[in-house]
Amino acid sequence: MAEGGFSIIYKATWEGTDVAVKKLHDSQNISKYFLNELRSLYQCNDDNFGVIGYYGITQDPITKEYMIILNYAKGGNLHNYLQKNFINITWNNKLLILQRISFGLYSIHYKNFIHRDFHSGNMLLSTYWKVGDLGLSQPANNTLSNNEIYGVIPYIAPEIFKGAAFSKESDVYSFGMIMWELTTGCKPFANVEHDHNLIFKILDGERPKITEDTPECYADLMKKCWDSNPSKRPIINEIYNTLYTAIWYQFEQAEKKRLELIQLKKLGPEFSEKPHPKAIYTSRALSDLISKASTIGSMVSLHMKQEYITQEYEFDIDNIQRLSIQNTNSATQSLIVPVNSSRKRNFEELKNETNENQKNRKYIKVDNLNDELLNIIELI
Known about the structure:
One of its GO terms (molecular function) is ATP binding. By secondary structure, the protein is α+β, with helices and mostly antiparallel strands.
């Protein structure tokens, strides 16, 4: 049926019932840590219709690899569903899908568990939309001593890239990405390579572009979910309640806009940018990429610090008409800056200004000016 980063899924029949069999790669020496994760899956699944049904675990008699027996979701996963049906999925339908998915995540968090791999490939349509693959986003031989991070980059909260542990808040971030995916029919950041540069951009606050037809109340909730600060994200109870008290007028207007954009061929998977060949949506080890992104971040941070050393001089350039640089000879440049010398100040003075004043002013920095160069700055 499908293959992920650490498993392959088959369809089978067990006691007259269709089931999904998830075979775990290289699981002959399954770790106690992973077995505990399976126990968590079973406990969370108990009497819970928001999470995909879990029957038990068995072993391949030939390869000795372990296999998990799950409820068969005949409707497939959310991403494939969107690819096939996006044009016909109204805003009301999208809201209903999210309500069911939020119920599944609410059930997981209510029992004090964390999903850790919350993306559209793990949202499955059985009788209703349900959450699947709880706790299974890692190799079966993984141990507590293994500090490796596994997952799908676009759905991972930025704090995880900084070394924080997966949490209910990081699940909520992933939920926000699924909200966005429902608006476009496309996976987030599908048009770029999923490498260290994408990790750095996510850490720097980059998020997918919100579509024109997205209702304001929906967009507000989505942006709260993917806030860079985990403490500012809503808890799943709040999300669940918000989705059930949505502003219907906004969704009616959004549906009209959605149909208009589809007619203009401006919305939907078939009209989106071509997916990048190195956009990877299966769970994988990410530590090497995170390390590279961290190196970029350190270099940028160092560069920013160097920009604000006390040897620099900064000039207020509000209402600038022009800045001219003229070469006088091979060794000297005359800098003509439209600024009165009385407005000159160094960094030590500037940093005492209030934040409000800093927002309202613009500056140009000229590094390491000596007295000779300062003397040739003239008022236009």
